[in-house]
Each structure stands twice: as C-alpha cells, then as structure tokens.
Design brief:
The complex is a heterotetramer, with two copies of chain A (155 residues) and two copies of chain B (110 residues). With 155 residues, chain A is an alpha+beta fold. Chain A is 35% helix and 26% strand. Chain A contains five helices and five strands, in the order H-E-H-H-E-E-H-H-E-E. Chain B contains four helices and six strands, in the order E-E-H-E-E-H-E-H-E-H. The chains are: A alpha+beta (155), B alpha/beta (110). Bound molecules: adenosine-5'-diphosphate (2 copies).
Chain lengths: 155, 110, 155, 110
C-alpha cells in the first residue's frame, strides 16, 4: 500500500452487514412507553431510516402495540411485564411486543375507524394505525401473546 | 410533555408540548374539561410543538370535540406538521376537525 | 392518576433490562477496523460506559483482536471474512471476533512485552493489551477461531 | 486520520491526527523515514490530536526510536492524554521514550 496514494476504502460493509437486536422488559405501565419508543426510533435513525419513519410510523405503531399490551393485560393484576424485541438491519425493522395475556383474534378485532359511523368513536384506531403505518402485522402465541410488526426501510 | 393553557381574547389556546399519547391524554381531557366547566366555549389546540399522537390522543380529541359541540362551543386545531397531517388523513379525522395552517387563521375562523 | 400530581415515574427499567446484540461481517481488510471499533464504542457510550472504557479499553482491545484476525488469516488468500458479535448490557460488554484460521494456543502465545529484553521489540503487545484492558479473554473454536473478550462496566 | 509534518527550528514536528493503528502505521514509518534520509535528526511526535494507539502503532514508535538513535538522532513524544499515558505505562514504554507534557518542554529538551 503506497502511503501517499492509498487505495480507496471499499464500500461500507459494516453498515451493509450490520444486524442489531434489542431486548428489554418493562413493568406493565404506560409511563415506560416513551422511553421504549425513543430507544427503538433512535436505533432506526442510526441505521439511516428516513425521518418520516422514525418520527411517525415507528413511534405511533409502537405506542399502539405497547399500550394495547399494557392496558389489556394490566387488568389481570399480578405485576405483569411486557417484553420488547427489535431486530434491525439496513433494510427493515422487525419488532415484537409480548404480553402475558391470552391473545386475541387479530382479523376479528380489526375494524375500520374511517367509516362514517365510526369516525366519532373514541376507541378502535390502534390496530388500524399499526396496519397502516407498518408493512406487516402478525399475532401469534409463543411464551405469551406476541404482536410482530415489520417495517421495510423506504427511502 | 406538558400542556400550556392561556387565553387569547375569548379563545382558550392549548399548546401541546411533546407527545399526546396514552400516558398523558387524561391530563389534556381533564384540563380542557375544567375550562369548559368554567364557561369557556372557544378552544384552539396548537400542535406546533407536538411530537407524535397515538390513537388514544386522537380519541381524546374526538371526545373533546363532541363535548365542546354539545355545549354549543367550537374547537379548532392549528399547526399540524406533515407527520400529524398524515395521521389525520389516514384516520379521516381531517374531515371531522376544523384544521388551520396557522394559529392566526384558526383564531380568525371562530 | 391525578393530572396535577402524577406519581413519579418508577426507576428506569428500560436501561436496566436492555440487552443489545450487534452482529456484522467484514472482508479481512484492516481499513474496516475503525468503523467496527467506532460502532461498538458508540453503543457502549449509549449504555453509559465510562469514557475511559469507551475511549481506551474498548477501542484498543478490539483493534488488537481485529488486526490479529485480519493479518493472521489474510495470508490464506481466498477472500476470508471476519465476523464480529457484541452483546451489551448495562453491566458488561462481551465481544467475539471470529476468523477463518485454525486458531492458536492463547496461553502459549501470551508473552510479557514489559520485560526489559522485550521492550524494544516491535511486535508482541497485542494479546498483552487485550488481557490488560479487558476483564476476561478467551479463545475457542466454533465455526472458526473465536476470540471472546469481556469487559465489566466499572464506573 | 493523517500525519502533518513541519519544521520548527531544527526539529521535525509530527502531528498525529486521529488513530495510530495497524491501518496507517506504515504511513508514519515511511514519512518519518523519508525525513531521516534527508538528514533530519531531531524528531518530536505530538499526540495532542491523537485518539488511540494500538500495538502496531506502539511498535512503529519503538522502531522509529531505534532507527533515530542508530543515526545519532533524538526522538521526543509530547502531549499524551491520560488514556495514552495509561497505555505507555501498561506496556512500560514510558521507560523507553522521553515524554514531555507540552510541546514547548519537548522542544527545549533536545
Ligand atoms: N395485546 C392485546 N391483547 C388483547 N387484546 C388486544 C390486544 N391488542 C389489541 N387487542 C384487541 O383488539 C381490539 C382493538 O384494538 P385497537 O384497534 O388498538 O383499539 P382500542 O385499543 O382503542 O380498542 C381491542 O379492543 C382488543 O380487544
Ligand atoms: N487470530 C489469531 N489467529 C492466529 N494466531 C493468532 C491470532 N491472534 C494472535 N495470534 C498469535 O498470537 C501471537 C501474539 O499475538 P500478539 O500478542 O497480538 O502479537 P503480534 O500480533 O504483535 O505478534 C501472534 O504472533 C500469533 O501467533
């Protein structure tokens, strides 16, 4: 390697190959939502996800999933906890929210809050926003009720 | 996050600073509710300093809107950034609320 | 929850329970070392590791492990790659560097470069710095030659 | 990362900007080597703008030190921050090099 004319560094394989997994657990309390959302949005920012995704899609969809997990299961008493797992690459975010509830029928619960008769309802926009703001929404049971959301990075 | 409430003429102006989400929506509901009980009828909510709003926050806006209308008052929203506009469009709530680009226009529209 | 006197938010369970795993792979080329080191040091900073650890211990030990992996195995030709895995909590960093070489006898290779007769040698300080700057250094074979370093967060 | 070389009186002053590690140590070795061939004998390496140094970087400093001494010259190091001092102490290289706290003191020490 000639010191005065070093070969150009090859394209950035660190960013291209990087995969980041986050895992955390919070008590079932809505006051922790913002910290979790901030953490995951910041990691997506560092990966270069566009501003709209880190400021709108990710915070809103994640807040919905977390508040559903917290509010539905909190009623159970018994200090339930919510687990959050995020898996991030250059290309997509996959985030899983796990609560201790019995789960629910995703398709059956998904209404359309934009219908005129629903427009003035206070509730019922959470799952709708999750599907609208994410590319994929899944629910399954695996050591708890898991809601998995996938967002592709669109530039 | 916090809510600042002040009077401008006969309009109650509420600034939403930070997120309007499940963790603080009741605070907004209560604060504006208290003012309605004191007799306020014109309410302007200013979102120029707002981050994001979740479905609970939208739900509180819907409920306040109805309550104000039921008491013969009026609600205006102002200064939604592009992300918040997207949110109102997605949920079609842009058809339910009277939304102004600036606070001045919102004040004039009462 | 009274709106004018909200209960204080409980201690930060997000930071306390958070676990971050990073995985990446680079071509065996020393020019990628700084990017990998910067990435991992930055994550440790975000976890609140003290400045000395993020500016000295982590960068130097990691640079040693990466350059050993790259320089020892590069000779083999055949576009070898180096894998890096980091596992981070509030309490410690565990980082593994995996090369495609046959491995080496860690105890046998560990000399003492501070002995007077070694002081003027150009080589032989890499493993010594890794052991000095980290709390634990291990080597084993598992889909390649794995060097694992553990650093406890000391405030 | 880069190396800036300038003359100050009869002393060659080398600023190490960024890391001194396996990826750029040869550049330092070569640049200082060239100057030695041109007849320079007093060399001061200034670390005030240096990040971290790895064992390859330390190795180059050791080899330059020997080479300069063999040619009847002198090498001084200056402005090591606390982290770099720790590194020189760990490796006992603080006993091999003449290290000054400031550039001025290093210049006076030739
Ligand atoms: N984590 C969950 N556990 C149990 N039920 C859930 C969960 N998330 C959503 N649901 C169900 O889906 C319904 C619709 O949720 P959503 O669209 O968020 O509206 P809202 O929460 O405002 O009722 C909820 O009323 C609930 O029955
Ligand atoms: N990843 C590796 N693969 C094979 N051998 C290694 C590896 N890392 C270290 N070694 C062995 O350990 C020896 C000492 O390494 P080190 O202390 O870093 O000194 P240096 O690399 O300067 O010789 C090396 O010379 C090499 O034989």
């Amino acid at each position: 390697m000639a010191p005065d004319a070093p070969a150009p560094a090859p394209a950035d394989p660190v960013a291209a190959s990087l995969r980041v997994a986050l895992e955390l657990e919070i008590p079932s309390d809505v006051r922790h939502i913002e910290a979790v959302v901030g953490l995951i949005a910041r990691h997506c920012e560092q990966f270069g996800f566009p501003r709209k995704q880190t400021a709108l899609n990710i915070p809103v969809a994640l807040t919905e999933a977390l508040s559903n997990a917290i509010l539905r299961v909190n009623a159970a008493g018994d200090a339930p906890r919510v687990q959050v797992r995020a898996d991030l690459t250059d290309e997509r975010l996959v985030v899983e929210i796990v609560d201790e509830g019995a789960g629910f029928d995703l398709a059956g619960c998904l209404g359309d809050p934009t219908q005129p008769e629903n427009l003035e309802r206070e509730e019922g926009r959470g799952l709708f926003l999750m599907t609208s703001l994410m590319d994929r929404l899944e629910r399954f049971s695996s050591h708890g009720n898991v809601v998995r959301m996938t967002l592709l990075r669109h530039d | 996050m916090s809510f600042a409430i002040k009077k401008q003429g006969d309009v109650l102006v509420v600034d939403v600073d930070g997120q309007l989400i499940v963790g603080n929506r009741n605070e907004l509901k209560q604060k504006v509710g208290d003012e309605l009980e004191k007799g306020e009828r014109k309410v302007l909510i200013d979102f120029s300093r707002t981050g994001y709003i979740d479905s609970s926050g939208l739900g509180v806006l819907v409920s306040l809107s109805r309550r104000i209308r039921d008491q013969g008052g009026e609600l205006r929203l102002a200064n939604l950034n592009d992300d918040l506009k997207t949110l109102f469009e997605l949920t079609k709530l842009d058809t339910l609320f009277q939304i102004s680009d600036t606070k001045e226009r919102a004040l004039q529209s009462f």
